Amino acid sequence: MRVLSIAFLLFLFIAPVSLSQIRPVAAQAGTDRAVVRPRTVVIIRRGALIKDFPDKKRATVTYPVISGLKDPQVLRRVQAILQVKNVFDSSIAEYRGDNWLEEFRYEVNYNKNSILDITFTQDGSGAYPDMQTKHFAINLKNGKVIKASDVFITSSLTTLRTMLDGKLKSELKEILESLRDSKSDPEDVRIATEAQEPLGYTIENLDDFEVGAKGVTFLYDAGYPHVIQAFEPNGRYFFSYSELKPFIKRDGPLGQFVQ
Questions:
Q1: pLDDT tier for residue 31 given thresholds of 50, 70 and 90
Q2: Number of domains in the chain
Q3: What is the CATH classification number for the domain harbouring 94?
Q4: Are 192 and 224 in contact (CB under 8 A)?
Q5: Which residues, in sequence order, are CB contacts of 246 under 8 Å at separation 6+?
Q6: DSSP secondary structure letter of residue 140
Q7: Which domain holds residue 114?
Q8: What whole-number distance in Å separates Cα of residue 70 and Cα of residue 146?
């Protein structure tokens, strides 16, 4: 009995402390991150859609279900941005009515400090297999997609563009040098060279970037057709927050990383 009494007294003494530690965590839930849960829809195609393509009978769509944000208006905005139709301009019903899609999926790159960064990918095939990606960085304080003008000092955008154009041009040069060093067919070198001619970083390209714990990765989609995608630049250019510090707005979503 004495042992039980001591255990009971210890419980009474410790329990309030434990509860006091739990309550703040529950109260803060949803203040700086979203709850992201996957939901998968399996598409089963029938009839004419698979008559000549039996391997296209099935496709999967895995999309994020967003919750956990305190402000209902912000939550609705984030949910609207990340709905399936808004990603690649095709709804689940439209994917079901066509036999191109094989898989639709997403990956959360960052989800804290009031920023949700997420990348969607779809794989499919028509005349050729193809893969497409779409990226969103969202401010969880207002439910809006983060643009370069939201996070970088306006007067610095031209300098940033120049820096990134230099990164792109260096990558394009490496691609051509690699083709020449590997004794590739001169026709391949010619095609790769011509494909590079219209490429260049613009101010608008600055809007597409991934937010990470250590820095920002700017994304560039050259948009090469499938037949020459082997010559396409990777288009991922990382800058640490220390490198970007002179360009970042202190009162913007990335200001917290350079204080």
A1: low
A2: 2
A3: 3.30.565.40
A4: no
A5: 156
A6: T
A7: 35-145
A8: 20
Q: What number of other Cβ atoms are within 10 A of residue 43's Cβ?
A: 20
Pair 140, 174 in one domain = no
DSSP designation for 69: -
Residues 133 and 118 in one domain: yes
Residue 150: what pLDDT?
98
Cβ–Cβ < 8 Å for 152, 172: no
Q: What number is the average pLDDT over the span 1-26?
A: 40
Please give the structure tokens belonging to residue 115. 């920023």
The residue from 114, 129, 145 where one domain ends is 145
Average pLDDT value for residue range 129-138: 95
Q: Look at residue 172 in the predicted model and tell me its pLDDT.
A: 98
φ/ψ of residue 102, rounded to 5: -110, -45
Mean pLDDT of the chain: 89
Q: What is the pLDDT of residue 128?
A: 86
Can you give the C-alpha Rg of the chain in angstroms? 25
- 125 with 183, same domain: the answer is no
Q: Locate tokens 């690649």: which residue?
A: 88
**Interatomic CA distance for residues 82 and 75, integer angstroms:** 11
- Whether residues 40 and 139 share a domain: the answer is yes
pLDDT at 66 over 80: yes
Same domain, 175 and 225: yes
pTM: predicted TM-score of the whole model, two decimal places: 0.85
